[in-house]
Amino acid sequence: MKITEWAKTQITVNEVGGFCVALLLVSIYFSTALAIAFSVVVAMLWIASGQYKHLPRTLKNCPVALWSLLLFGCFIIGASYGDATSSDSVGMLKKYRELLFLPLILPLLAEARYRRWVWNAFIIASIVTLLGSQLMSIQVFCVEAQCLPYFKSYITHGIVIAFFAFFVMHKVFDTRQELQMLCLATLLLCLYNLFFVSAGRTGQLIFVCLSLVFAVQRLSKKGLLLAVLVMAVLIGGFLTFSDKATRIKEGVATLESRLQGHSQEGEYSMGERFNFWQYSAQLIAEKPLFGQGTGNYTKAYQRVSGKESFNPHNEFLLIGVQLGAVGLLFYLGFLGSQAVYAKTLPEHDKWLAQGLLVTLIVTSLFNSPLLDHTEGHWFTVMIALCFAARRDVAV
Fold first, then answer.
1. Among residues 192, 159, 191, which one has the least CA distance to residue 366?
2. What is the DSSP letter of 82?
3. Where are the chain's structural domains?
4. Secondary structure (DSSP) of 135-200
5. Backbone dihedral region of 372: left (phi > 0), alpha (psi from -120 to 50 degrees) or beta?
6. Mean pLDDT of 390-394
7. The pTM of the whole model exceeds 0.70
8. Nearest to 209, CA basis, from 321, 377, 361, 5
9. DSSP 3-state assignment of 256?
């Protein structure tokens, strides 16, 4: 009798855990405070469900989670050296805490029905974000005094909408005929929002890359060639005729100026990034093997540049400065494990996991997604959601 009651309790806790992961994902889109609260609840449910006893098996069955913990372990070791204060080191560790959540979320989503809850939460949150952005763009309502057309930053907005567009592309192919027109309309709204409402160049680049990934995944060789040609024509038309392409043109002009050795900064955003990258590369060259230490980026950057910067807007450089080649090796291992083990997933989950990996890589080139709270938690939940579909994740 006691065994039966314990089994029922475990089922109940797992159900609540799956539901809370869905709520966590929704909260990530709209509220940092709620996201923190639900992440704590998820951690407590992981303990209450007894999954901590099976952590070694979870890590063995899903190496992506193992690489995530190993990368966080590098940050812990990095806190033991360098010139960063204890508060700076601990603060940086807190920012990367989402790396700990992969092995926690995976077993809570082992059952297909729990994963369906979270995918539905993803769809709902994405649609609300998309429609909300459109309404904010015409000032029907505002969430900030400036009335910007996104709930979080324009970078975050571009990332999540670009991946949602990729998700909808697959739905166009997979859904019933009567729903295809609705999916197509949603896809077109995503495109309009990305290129004519949002100012995020990262999201625009991600969408272009994901479109090519989708073409490789779902189209024949002729279809792939046609998709590339259509994409080239659309991008060319956008850059040539649309006044919304101004920031892209300014970024390209800044890049050309830097490559020609001109001293002017050019367009502010990209000009600053080039400074960040230049000085970050200098810091990596100083201590290439183990880096400057966890939490020491700001202090080290100020030492070589005379200016203040909290991150170089490049995840590879940020990890390289702090943890050197060793830390970069573990980050590449984290990314590489996703590429390798995505092939072991059911077909649809494999496609989405591959798209998510491309999204993370592109984002990491121009931002620091694991450092940023919203992006870091979003990527963690979405990676766990995809890889929980592995048949051997369940305990």
1. 159
2. S
3. 2-387
4. HHHTTS--SSTT--SSSS-HHHHHHHHHHHHHHHHHHHHHS-HHHHHHHHHHHHHHHHIIIII---
5. beta
6. 63
7. yes
8. 361
9. helix
